[in-house]
Amino acid sequence: MSSDPTEEYNDVNEAAVADWKGETTTRERIKAIITRTTEPTPASEIAEKARASKPVVRDELNELTELGLVEKIDGGQGALYKRNDQMYIYQQVLKLHDEYSEDELIETLQELKQTVQDIRTKYGVESPAELAQQLDPDDQDGWDDHTMWQTAQKNLYLAKAAISFYDARKVVA
């Protein structure tokens, strides 16, 4: 007698959800979900993902909106919510600023620029989009380089912003 793999998979998911609920508060789960929500989404969907009641989710989302962490958008038939991307970027930059010295950030910036330059030179292109256009679907190394370039580019922007915070503190201090 064999077991149904779908049934086992559902049990694993249910176990993971049970662990998540046991290890976090409702508010922590809501924050975890909204932080990854980049498209306007109804509170009911966020409640379902966070395994929380709709009234609690609405209250928390309204509080997070007042703090500027969440954007509330009129969806015509009700409010939609998504993370405030500007605040999310700001938090990421502050985290880098707090965790790394200015010299470490400058060193990282140099390494990231070198990574981007190496990929540009390797493929003779100027952007990740241009690289994607020339890659074959089965060129795994090329797609890995494409992903690495996109990640390096994102991290470059964040590192530059964190370095700018050091510069701004010198001006303000």
TrEMBL record:
UniProt superkingdom: Archaea
InterPro entries to which the protein is assigned, alphabetical: ArsR-like_HTH, DUF7342, WH-like_DNA-bd_sf, WH_DNA-bd_sf
Region span, Disordered: 1-21
Biased composition (Acidic residues): 1-11
Pfam families referenced in this protein's UniProt entry, alphabetically: DUF7342
Protein name per its UniProtKB record: ArsR family transcriptional regulator
Species for this entry: Halorientalis regularis
